[in-house]
Amino acid sequence: MNSLGANSAQGESGEGDCSDSEEPLTLTDFKANSTTATTTTLHVTTFIGDTRGPLFLGYAPTYDIAMQIALAEGPSGSNRDYLFHLSHFMKTQLPNVTDTHLFDIEKELVEILSKEDKEKSVIN
């Protein structure tokens, strides 16, 4: 399963097929294709969101997804931190992979947080 939706990268599960897993966290060997003869293997933890869960928005507009991320926090921390770390990873470790959906959500989230900061400064 290629969660990036890109042809230039591939994931190989170290724990069996992720799509059949009951556990949302799976240890995975991620092999990034490169333009050189060598392939880099990264050992990563992959989160597979369950589309049947109560927080799944479905196929929602980018703004709605970003707003939910701005407000959501769980046992592992804030969703906004997760999104920013994921985006940073993609840009630094896989610069040849463009995840338009991820980067569009990041852009919307930055705008939402910027507006939120401006509103707070007006109140104070």
- Tally the beta strands: 5
Structural class: alpha+beta
CA gyration radius, whole angstroms: 17 Å
Q: What is the arithmetic mean of pLDDT?
A: 75
Reported for the largest beta sheet, the result is:
3 strands, antiparallel
Describe this structure in words.
This protein is α+β, with helices and mostly antiparallel strands and 124 residues long. The chain has two domains: 49 residues, no CATH class; 67 residues, no CATH class. The chain is built from three helices and five strands; from the N terminus they run βββαββαα. It has a three-stranded antiparallel β-sheet, with no helix packed on it. A two-stranded antiparallel ribbon has the order 4-5. Helix 1 packs across helix 3 and helix 2 packs across helix 3. The radius of gyration is 17 Å and the shape is globular. The N terminus is likely disordered.
Features:
alpha+beta, 124 residues, two-stranded antiparallel ribbon, 2 domains, disordered N terminus, three-stranded antiparallel beta sheet, 5 strands
Quick recap:
The protein has 124 residues and is of the alpha+beta class. The chain has helices spanning 62-71, 79-93, 100-123; strands at 9-13, 25-32, 40-47, 73-74, 77-78.
What layout of secondary structure does this protein have?
Blueprint: E1 9-13, E2 25-32, E3 40-47, H1 62-71, E4 73-74, E5 77-78, H2 79-93, H3 100-123
Helix pairs in contact: 1-3, 2-3
